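We examine the record.
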Amino acid sequence: MRVAKEQVEIKMEIPGAVIRQRKDFGDASGFGKISGEYFTLSAGVDTTPLFQGLEGNLCQSPHWGYVLRGRITTTDAAGKQETVNADDLFYWPPGHNVKVDADAEIIMFSPQHEHSHVIEHMIKMTAA
């Protein structure tokens, strides 16, 4: 799910503050601890080879996040692609690969157990 900042409903606006809220932005039920993550990624980064060996050769952790700068395209198991840009909120469900289209910085919140497994797998893949 990609949501541009302008598409997030303004719930309150007063001098000096604008409160926007997007309800039903993913479901974290059934997950334990959540990790906050800050990624800096260069254009051309593609997770496809790093996810080889994971279930479906895809990241199986959901992520909720915000794009500070750049552009990133995800591809799911069915081949559907979605691109997020600077100032977009995003939700990436389990079962995706990531390609960085333009140098990017993102903030993500992920189930700690599931995403740590994926990160550890990527570390092993880069060491091989």
Remarks:
- The longest strand covers residues 96-111.
- The chain has a mean pLDDT of 92.
